[in-house]
Design brief:
This protein is 12% helix and 49% strand. The relative contact order is 0.13. A hairpin with a 2-residue loop joins strand 14 and strand 15. By secondary structure, it is mainly β. It starts with a helix and ends with a helix.
Length: 290
């Protein structure tokens, strides 16, 4: 009888221990399907600036300008991105009422090195005004923008842009024939110096740039534009999708007796000269909104 009782007790002890052993055994977890990120994305933004300055020359006659852009992106992989979009800005009414610039290209990211190569078409709908002494036609150029990020503080970049002997669409004040070539190129070096602290989550950076715009003799003869050097330095405050850019511009181009890119002559304008510009921008992507 005693043996029977001991056998029953032992059996119950083993049975009670089974769940504990089972709990300690590894269980193969079910795989959870992870959604693959879409290679497609859309970037877009808008801006309000106190003066639309392009390479040291005001494009809005020192008036407020509104701007915006839309860009479709396709990420081939972590290195390559294709894009196409359009950027636009209001202008001063004596030249053209708007600038509309479609562009397309490819971006390469290789470690800390970046390269953006593409094509841009500077469009000025209705942009010819002989009465104002200016002629402004649309034209296209190719560009290359290399950059290198040394660390979280310093990034150095550059720009090279050149056209196809078609500057200003070879339009002449008064509608006369264009004489000579119509070549234009532009190059610049710039930097982004990001400060190592973020008060209230705001990223602060200093952005200096110096560039040179080169016009051929044909452009000077037909339009009056002369090669010039410009510089600018900005202080950026970035909070999430918003950026406040405070920038000071300068150029050695001067308004001449004959109208050039600065105005002058019969126009009585001076679109050049040192100036301070404030710009408020909002930029985001569809993927960031999800």
């Amino acid at each position: 009888m005693k043996k029977l009782v001991l056998s029953v007790v032992a059996a119950l002890a083993v049975t009670a221990a089974v769940p504990a052993f089972a709990a300690d055994m590894p269980v193969k977890a079910k795989r959870v399907a992870v959604a693959t990120p879409s290679p497609w994305d859309i970037a877009f933004g808008t801006a309000l600036t106190s003066d639309y300055v392009l390479r040291g020359v005001s494009q809005s006659n020192h008036h407020v300008a509104t701007q915006g852009y839309f860009e479709l992106r396709y990420n081939i992989n972590d290195m390559w991105q294709l894009y196409a979009g359009v950027w636009s800005s209001s202008l001063w009414t004596g030249l053209a009422n708007a600038e509309v610039d479609p562009n397309a290209g490819v971006r390469l990211t290789l470690g800390n090195f970046g390269l953006d190569v593409g094509y841009v078409y500077y469009g000025y709908p209705g942009g010819v005004n002989a009465a104002a002494g200016l002629a402004n036609g649309s034209y296209g150029e190719v560009y290359a923008k290399p950059s290198y990020k040394f660390n979280d503080i310093l990034t150095i970049g550059g720009i090279y842009e050149t056209g196809f002997n078609n500057f200003n669409d070879k339009r002449v004040v008064g509608g006369g024939p264009w004489v000579g070539d119509a070549r234009h190129s532009f190059y610049a070096v710039n930097a982004v110096i990001t400060l190592p602290w973020q008060p209230a989550g705001i990223t602060i950076s200093i952005n200096p740039e110096i560039g040179r715009e080169v016009y051929s003799s044909g452009v000077t003869t037909n339009q009056g534009s002369v090669s010039d050097t410009y510089w600018d330095v900005g202080l950026d405050f970035v909070y999430k999708a918003a950026t406040l850019d405070l920038r000071y511009w300068g150029t050695n181009a001067k308004a001449g007796a004959v109208a050039n890119q600065c105005g002058g002559g019969a126009t009585g304008l001076n679109l050049c000269g040192d100036r301070f510009v404030a710009t408020l921008k909002f930029d985001t992507t569809f993927s960031a909104l999800k």
